[in-house]
Amino acid sequence: MTYSVAVAGASGYAGGELLRLLAEHPEFEIRTVTGHSNAGKPLIASQPHLRSLAHLTLQETTPEVLDGHDVVFFALPHGASGALTAQLTDVRLAIDCGADHRLTSESDWAAFYGGEYNEAWTYGVPELIVAGEPGAAATRQRDQLAGATRIAAPGCNASTVALSFAPGIAAGVIESHDLVTVLAVGPSGAGKAAHTHLLGAELMGTANPYAVGGTHRHIPEIQQALRGAGASETPTLSFTPVLVPMSRGILATSTARIAPGTTAAEVRAAWEAAYADETFVHLLPAGEFPRTADTIGANTCLMGIAIDEAAGRVVVVAAVDNLAKGTAGAAIQSANIALGIPEATGLTVNGVAP
Amino acid sequence: MTYSVAVAGASGYAGGELLRLLAEHPEFEIRTVTGHSNAGKPLIASQPHLRSLAHLTLQETTPEVLDGHDVVFFALPHGASGALTAQLTDVRLAIDCGADHRLTSESDWAAFYGGEYNEAWTYGVPELIVAGEPGAAATRQRDQLAGATRIAAPGCNASTVALSFAPGIAAGVIESHDLVTVLAVGPSGAGKAAHTHLLGAELMGTANPYAVGGTHRHIPEIQQALRGAGASETPTLSFTPVLVPMSRGILATSTARIAPGTTAAEVRAAWEAAYADETFVHLLPAGEFPRTADTIGANTCLMGIAIDEAAGRVVVVAAVDNLAKGTAGAAIQSANIALGIPEATGLTVNGVAP
Amino acid sequence: MTYSVAVAGASGYAGGELLRLLAEHPEFEIRTVTGHSNAGKPLIASQPHLRSLAHLTLQETTPEVLDGHDVVFFALPHGASGALTAQLTDVRLAIDCGADHRLTSESDWAAFYGGEYNEAWTYGVPELIVAGEPGAAATRQRDQLAGATRIAAPGCNASTVALSFAPGIAAGVIESHDLVTVLAVGPSGAGKAAHTHLLGAELMGTANPYAVGGTHRHIPEIQQALRGAGASETPTLSFTPVLVPMSRGILATSTARIAPGTTAAEVRAAWEAAYADETFVHLLPAGEFPRTADTIGANTCLMGIAIDEAAGRVVVVAAVDNLAKGTAGAAIQSANIALGIPEATGLTVNGVAP
Amino acid sequence: MTYSVAVAGASGYAGGELLRLLAEHPEFEIRTVTGHSNAGKPLIASQPHLRSLAHLTLQETTPEVLDGHDVVFFALPHGASGALTAQLTDVRLAIDCGADHRLTSESDWAAFYGGEYNEAWTYGVPELIVAGEPGAAATRQRDQLAGATRIAAPGCNASTVALSFAPGIAAGVIESHDLVTVLAVGPSGAGKAAHTHLLGAELMGTANPYAVGGTHRHIPEIQQALRGAGASETPTLSFTPVLVPMSRGILATSTARIAPGTTAAEVRAAWEAAYADETFVHLLPAGEFPRTADTIGANTCLMGIAIDEAAGRVVVVAAVDNLAKGTAGAAIQSANIALGIPEATGLTVNGVAP
After folding, report:
1. What's the confidence (pLDDT) of residue C36?
2. Chain C residues interacting with chain A (CB cutoff of 8 angstroms)
3. Could you confirm whether C156 is annotated as catalytic?
4. Which of B35, C129, C236, D225 has the greatest count of CB atoms below 10 A from its CB?
5. Are A9 and A18 in contact (CB under 8 A)?
6. What ipTM did this prediction achieve?
7. What CATH fold (topology level) applies to the domain B157-320?
């Protein structure tokens, strides 16, 4: 069947990527697009690369406009979707690409975001390992997504890091405290609002750190995911993002201490087992590491791991397209699962490179 | 007085940067430039930005050509300078920008480089803290450089990371094991030889890790420097470099565990004390972190630190121009010290930005 | 039906883009990939972004390997395909993405390429206007492509410029002499062979002209196309390409003198009429001009025109992805036409932006 | 002697480059810096690369603050300096890097800028050829700058293009109508104000044209300069700028029809004669063309010319750093001349590359 779809926040970067992917999806029909300051204007004025959607006009982002669609994707600034989604009465599946419904801890929300807390929705990272009850086998997050009606798409950095650490934590081959991640990330993740520090002249030819020292909002989201994967207590994580001169992409270098008594083969085996059957998360052969270029436009997370015995740490390097697998692709993959559509529908594993 | 200068390896990136800086230096006169495959050609054919040196022709890189100069800078591939420098008979000051004379451990050389070992020369990082004998105050590396006749300029990544950790190690406010560094670095550090993986199309718009898992050659150099700064034993370091799309620059994010019982103020004080009087290493105010753009062309290392109490780690972010402060600037600064010229002569603290 | 396909030169940039597009094409089955120095290795070692083709191994590029496929795409260096294609005995449709079969003039070939001349094949730019015999209406190049068995895919710069000027020449609203084009182009068009001048450090942060002064090999191809579009004599064209720091993309700024007595409205009408019904060439509204970002990965040529009455010139700005619409997309679009498959099959109009 | 200097608009890009150069200038002492919205803040908060100026605080941009300095540089948005400079009573030398005092034609000002017209000041392009009265030899613009008290620094694009065409026009070897220029330019020329179309994500990996079709404000300035160089009537010029992903730099490709009966040698000789004795404008040998990288941070304009006999056009490719030779360097060079300081003082010919 064909599902009617609305995209709220269609004039931004995440909204644009949702539409690019939805335009190729055989089961979704884009019926409505909304935008705040651009309401009334053609979508293509904001998204000149979406030539096949030249017929669409941006409408106001209101519950009335959005209600009545089978599926609504929200690509709004953090804090903007919570009040809106609460007013929906006739939407089968709502997927929030913003942060409003990601955190299960109200105190984490207060500490890292502030403003009104909204309850957490089903987390949209299908490949994430979910520890079972004592004695039961681990499952995947996709099991919880099947049949879901409200989904929180992940933060792009958060899901990349969670997928990087989860196999080792679930298998007990790494320690779950003293994790360290440094990310190289392109500025499209920061959105389309005009700020001086995001100007091209400020970003080209330079690497610029931000949110240094434990203040990035994706930290509690990562911790929450890793607790779900089996960390016995909330992991400690040093997390530093660095803006680098590429419009898209995340390269996350994540390291963890190898658990005492664990062999290198056991470490590698944990990641191999975790992703051997996954369509969209690929562990590269030993000695190979991914480049973000190879994931651009794709729903793929490429991962390479090294065991540094001298340092006593495993190094996991993961590459994703922050807008695709990091945001819009994850949202559509999750929607596919929720609706019973084959999980890979409308998504590609092949990147646009070079 | 004016010192006669030769630069060996003048057609490469490090050689070009040496010449750019030397051309403005009031005490040095560039008399000879040498290049391997380009010998006999005008320098400017290899270095079209060095307009003031259009009169120079590249000569062969031989001991005969180099001998007789007051100062010779070597900017040759690793392994190429050792045999050459051994044959010099009449050079007051030789400075090697390659790795051949950096490591004091022959086994480290064998493990990370291979080929014939050459004895270590005085290490060219003037600001580096050097622990004193028991009971004696710490000194700086510049004290050893005064009057030196043979100097090993540092690896660009190595000096950046050593400067990042040394204050904390020397002051005992961080643990010297389980260090973690991830660097964003531009490809000029990889040299001018043509390799497919360094093509523009392979590097633009993407972040590409390399030497993952403890294999990078700068690791033993960092460990050596940190032992010198007072680490009680050889530090363990997880070190991952990532090529990002900027021609120059290193942004090193380095983290270490805060020593038990140490306050945040004590941690910050260690770095403040270390660099308060330095011309070329600047600690930014609390909450500020550097961008590589601000160091381009300058001999400046900009540093910011954060104390992440939740993670139990200090995060040190350091930015340098890999060719300037990372290589050629460090070499000239060290040469100034060795010759008794004021240390900052011919060097600038101001970057070319944006 | 499904056509069996081979790609010769599958380890390069054009080969990679052909495969990326073919992998999504419902009527083509990629059966064979060949590569010169990489024969025997997995395709994915050369093309790590093509995750869905991880099962393919590169074979030698020989007639024996290629014969027997329904369709063979050649993505070889110029001069390499001519001898090879002459030996094929059992290939229904051969499409050469190199230059060997583009030029109808043996003397142009000798002047701009040299080496053995190969006869011209049907030119693969479907939207190109083809002037009719005297008294007959103009047609499009796609009419000649229908049923073709040998197709020369265009040079990426050449087709972009030909499409930019053809409407004006065909309609007689511009003069066909004294054309001027300056192109900004990314380095992927220069191929994957390692050359110093194509290193990332040589290309990032800089604009580098090449082939200045009428020496670029695409000039005779453009002239040939414009003669076909109705230029009364061979047009004169000043053509200057400039490498800029983006891996993909061509932005061609082309200007021509407005024919005496022609109004601005008549000029614009010529381009509007030419492309109003085209799927893959879009004329933007008056006052809007394209960006290459909006065409990345797409088979789209975006075009904007301005009439500069003070200068007496029309300015046509055209954006394409050099690897997609410029090369691989044009090849597949032409193959679709030749085989009677709907022209847009397996191709998208939407770019990957930002 | 030492001149006291103020820089108005010190928080922007042009202001920053002025300060970077002034900081190294032995005859100028930076005493005052002003900024609009940043008044009261440390300069270094806006210009974190200017480490040697960490002691300066931004003041309000008022006549009172600026009066009393020997030299005042204005780096304000167009339209902002005119009213301000009119109120100065005690400034020996004022140099406006904005457009307010560039145009001698009030109608050109009205057509391209609008707002109140301010009288033109002495144009700050020292190397520009100025045609003599009938029978008299040509001079240079530097002759008019000697002793000047009010100087209009040029538009960065305008001076680059004027220097490109002037030798041919002055020598009569090219036609002065039907000129065509296409420029690749980095976004720092567009200033530091936050606009969506200047965001990093909008500019990386893409070439974006703007002001297409004869609307760019530098067109009348170029025409004015070329009339001064001897064009018999106002030249017609098709001018198209293209933003490309580099923070700094202009690569201008300019073409003109070769005058009938002129030989290639005569054409080249015109440019050679024009710049043979210039310190900051270098004509490259035949067959060589410049890259913007080689001019970064330098006061150098590198130029290459080709005679395309088939097209009947000369092609002049000129590279400059838009902020240095294009703006701040030109201003300081002109100030040197005006004050009788050696022209090259405080400026370098060597670029920062790669």
Report:
1. 86
2. 13, 16, 20, 23-24, 47-53, 188, 204-205, 247-248, 282, 290-291, 293-298, 300, 302, 348-354
3. yes
4. D225
5. no
6. 0.97
7. Dihydrodipicolinate Reductase; domain 2 (3.30.360)
